[in-house]
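BUG-222 | component: ligand-complex export | severity: low

The export step for flavin mononucleotide jobs runs without errors, but we want the raw record kept on the ticket for reference. Input record follows.
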Amino acid sequence: MTGVGWLAVDVESVDRVLSTTRSVRRRLDFERPVEPEVIEACIDIATQAPTGLDRESWRFLVVTDPAKKRGVADLYRKSFEGMAERWAELAETLDLPQPPGERSTHRALAERLQDLPVLILVCAVGEPVRDDPVLEVSFYGSIFPAAWSLMLALRARGLGSTWTTLLLRERDATAKLLGIPEGVTQTVLLPVAYTKGANLRPARRKPAAQVAFWNEWGCPRQ
Ligand SMILES: Cc1cc2nc3c(=O)[nH]c(=O)nc-3n(C[C@H](O)[C@H](O)[C@H](O)COP(=O)(O)O)c2cc1C
């Protein structure tokens, strides 16, 4: 522990959560229910994240109803298949890896999405402003820290999740299905379940020395 009282932090545990919050798509307990109180506790932690102009524009649409989950899963799969078809076209302009294969974890999640106990669609009240860089960045910047904190809080409690955006290609149908009003922007969908045998390890990432510049773009630390 370092510090005292509220300042006391178990750095090792915090760093472990921060570096092992991985996408969990397969090693999930589809049978074990997730307590609503646990989800709410995690959302309470998530909303400690920064929020532009103190607006707290985040909203968390927690989907547990089987018919609604099935509807979301169908839309997600529609987008997944559409994306797979567009892959080659996109690969020409973007630096994309191989498309998800038949046995990929991405496909495994898509196939079982309706079986996860909880799907959380993170939304923002309002719409992004495109003609002002401050407002543009602030819009999603007021939501994503909370969404990531939510994944971290879930991970700390033994729950797995994945940061997904594919559903957004079907956002109109999603809005209809879930009663999302106009003027509310959908962002990430976090499918949530207790993990089962998941091996959560730090990912292989480039070290700070390769991705950080000091004082001038391109300059390494002296
Ligand atoms: C912006 C963004 C969008 C993503 N969208 C999806 C998605 O729709 N479906 C999915 O299965 N994974 C999605 N992912 C997860 C990535 O495919 C990838 O698994 C993840 O970023 C790597 O995390 P890991 O090291 O924990 O596996 C997304 C990640 C990011 C950052």
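Assignee comment: Attached the raw record above. The chain has one domain: 5-211.
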